[in-house]
TrEMBL record:
GO terms for cellular component: centriole. Keywords: Cytoplasm, Cytoskeleton. This is Centrosomal protein of 76 kDa. It comes from the Eukaryota. It holds the Pfam family CEPT76_peptidase. Belongs to the CEP76 family. One of its GO terms (biological process) is regulation of centriole replication. Centrosomal protein involved in regulation of centriole duplication. Required to limit centriole duplication to once per cell cycle by preventing centriole reduplication. It is found in: Cytoplasm, Cytoskeleton, Microtubule organizing center, Centrosome, Centriole. Residues 522-659 form the Centrosomal protein of 76 kDa C-terminal domain. Residues 364-494 form the CEP76/DRC7 peptidase-like domain.
Length: 662
């Protein structure tokens, strides 16, 4: 493989710097002198290169150099059928898990460099951060054809100092030619955009979605020398989707260089044809949806107040069919069961889409999956779409339900239909499951009816990636609803062909592809220890302010661990286990005449100070933390359970034992 001259000189410079950093030259001199002195016999006056390399290898110097040479890549546990080599990211990154990788010279790559930003006017007055000072940061997340990347966090500024390079692998997995070197014409048919999401993280660790942008990378196929520079204007999200938030300078380069470039007329014609094809499909679907809605209203005039949602706005303010927000998603080795998937979705943060001004109106915003995952929080619709996609990936017949909770609050949740007709509701925000048993309104008054345990009141429609059903039963109340979806007198279906035309795989570039899930970058044991230590300090300071001394019982703290593990197991599987052993251990740890009190609490963040403030608002917990008495011993145990996308469930238990004095 031949490298361009500038790449070759850059590679030589990197190797030279690495050898200087390890003082390899000095070590080679030492070995050379030692070899000549000890191993060279008097009759040999020449020392060959092979002899020297053998001596270097024996002393482990070559191994040391090879260990130090590494590229880093995002850890991606996504299952791949052909197991291709992972793509490479050339940036020094902070996550603790780094993997070595090789660049395959037989593959075609797109090298995307982010060379700074400008005109982020919201941060015009932002002061320069002092060394070591915690400040708000920008992070750029990318997804392209099943590969995900994340930039180094950079301080928020009017001209943020982005300097990152991402090596994106370009190949047609679907055609089975993943190992071939694709040419420009073949790449022109790859209409997947590079999805870029800009996240702002404030000094408290709270994340905000700043911008979501789909980069058309194929202009590089017609660029001179296979290199093009683009100024990408990022627009805001939600209500600010027409307002510019800043500009990123991006450089695209094909690697290895293309032998034959395309003309700009060919690429622009291809883009125009794709846009026309997509627009025509969307127009036809809109015509069909209007006709379907007219027919639905003719069934019963009251249907116009039911929550039948055919289109939803994404973070960029684009109206998309709701069915395009869901598709089967496999989590590889990261999640093992549907219930574990429900637990994972429930520990992602819940936040309603921000709305400017009062009035209590709900801002409409269904996020694309990448924006939701990178932010690590979203509204109930985002949670429901992800959970439904994961359950479909596990082979279940799953649907997103659109309806209301108590007081008529709009809500979405997930429903699965068993082969035996069992209907199960899954609450995506909590992970709770409910079996639906419909009430028969025609039964005599004396017949005992099931009492619904779920919080849902009405249901307007259900949908997944292939189906859309509008509820046309006389009542839209969930408790009397019959979920016989193939009975057209109860559920009005949409044409499967119409849905397929605007949803993958039938749709073209207007619908973003789903990214794979990433493994957690959090070390559960280290994080548990850090939060626990922070809480011990906070409790000691709080008691000191009250004039109380603090004595910690390490053994009692450790004994609390099984309870926290059992709580998480119960949340995940619905099965409680190990309670007998925990109770027995507590009885042994607490002497006769002493009283034990414990208070468990659950969080989905790792901020110890914030957790402590929440705990103090509970009178039970405050009673433990501020405990007075004879021989008071305090205990606290923290257990962090990690999930994909660095989501985590944090269980904390405060406890105390003291001598009862009557």
């Amino acid at each position: 493989m031949s490298l361009p001259p500038e790449k070759a000189s850059e590679l030589k410079q990197i190797i030279h710097q690495q050898l200087l950093k390890m003082d390899v030259h000095g070590r080679i001199r030492e070995v050379l002198a030692e070899t000549i002195r000890e191993e060279l016999a008097p009759e040999h006056q020449q020392l060959s290169t092979e002899d020297l390399i053998k001596a270097l290898r024996q002393r482990g110097i070559i191994d040391d150099v090879m260990k130090e040479l590494k590229f880093v890549t995002d850890v991606n546990e996504k299952e791949r059928t052909s197991a291709p080599k992972p793509s490479t990211h050339f940036v020094d990154r902070e996550p603790p898990v780094l993997k070595k990788t090789n660049i395959d010279p037989t593959r075609r790559y797109l090298y995307l460099q982010v060379l700074g930003g400008k005109a982020f006017l919201e941060h015009l007055q932002e002061p320069e951060p002092l060394p070591g000072q915690i400040c708000s940061t920008f992070t750029l997340c990318l997804h392209f054809r099943n590969q995900r990347f994340r930039s180094k966090p950079v301080p928020c500024a009017c001209e943020p100092d982005f300097h990152d390079g991402f090596l994106l692998e370009v190949h047609k997995e679907s055609l089975g030619d993943g190992s071939k070197m694709v040419d420009a014409t073949t790449m022109l048919s790859i209409c997947d955009p590079v999805h870029m999401v800009l996240i702002k993280t404030d000094t408290f660790g709270e994340t905000t979605l700043v911008a979501s942008y789909f980069l058309e990378w194929r202009s590089v196929l017609a660029a001179e020398n296979g290199i093009t520079n683009i100024a990408v204007e990022l627009l805001g999200v939600g209500t600010e989707s027409s307002v510019s938030v800043g500009v990123l300078n991006i450089r695209l380069e094909m690697y290895p260089q293309l032998n034959k470039m395309l003309s700009s007329e060919i690429t622009s014609t291809q883009f125009t044809l794709e846009r026309q094809k997509t627009a025509e499909k969307e127009r036809l679907f809109l015509v069909y949806a209007k006709q379907w809605w007219r027919e639905y209203l003719q069934i019963r005039p009251t249907h116009n107040v039911r929550l039948v949602k055919i289109f939803a706005q994404d973070e960029n303010g684009v109206n998309r069919p709701v069915c395009s927000f869901v598709r089967p998603l496999r989590a590889g080795r990261l999640l093992d069961t549907p219930r574990q998937a429900a637990r994972f979705v429930s520990v992602l943060g819940y936040e309603r889409a921000p709305v400017i001004g009062g009035g209590g109106g709900k801002q409409e915003q269904w996020c694309t999956l990448l924006a939701f995952l990178c932010r690590n929080k979203g509204d109930c619709e985002d949670h429901s779409n992800l959970l439904c996609s994961l359950l479909l990936g596990f082979g279940l017949e799953a649907f997103v339900c659109v309806g209301t909770k108590a007081k008529g609050v709009p809500h979405t949740w997930v429903m699965t239909c068993g082969t035996d007709g069992t209907i199960t509701f899954w609450e995506s925000l909590t992970g709770h499951r409910y079996i639906h048993r419909p009430v028969n309104p025609d039964d005599p008054p004396l017949v005992e009816q099931p009492k619904p345990l779920y919080p849902y009141r009405t249901i307007g429609c259900v949908f997944n990636h292939q189906n859309f059903f509008g509820n046309c039963q006389p009542s839209d109340a969930v408790d009397v609803c019959v979920f016989d979806l193939h009975n057209e007198s109860k559920w009005k279906p949409m044409s499967g062909e119409a849905i397929k035309s605007v949803c993958p795989p039938g749709a073209t570039s207007s619908v973003p592809p789903f990214p794979p899930l990433c493994a957690s970058a959090i070390d559960a044991a280290v994080t548990s220890n850090e939060v626990e230590l922070q809480l011990r300090i906070l409790v000691s300071e709080h008691r000191k302010d009250l004039g109380l001394s603090t004595v910690w019982d390490d053994q009692l703290s450790y004994v609390l661990s099984p309870a926290l593990a059992a709580y998480e197991l119960e949340r995940t599987t619905g099965v409680s286990a190990g309670n007998e052993e925990f109770q027995d251990a507590i009885r042994r740890a607490v002497p006769d005449g002493h009283t034990f009190k414990g208070f468990p609490i659950h969080f989905v963040h790792r901020n110890g100070r914030r957790a402590f403030a929440t705990c103090l608002r509970s009178p039970f917990c405050e009673e433990i933390i501020c405990c007075r008495g004879d021989q008071v011993r305090l205990a606290v145990r923290v257990r962090v359970f990690t999930y994909p996308e660095s989501a985590c469930a944090v269980w904390i238990m405060f406890a105390c034992k003291y001598r009862s004095v009557l």
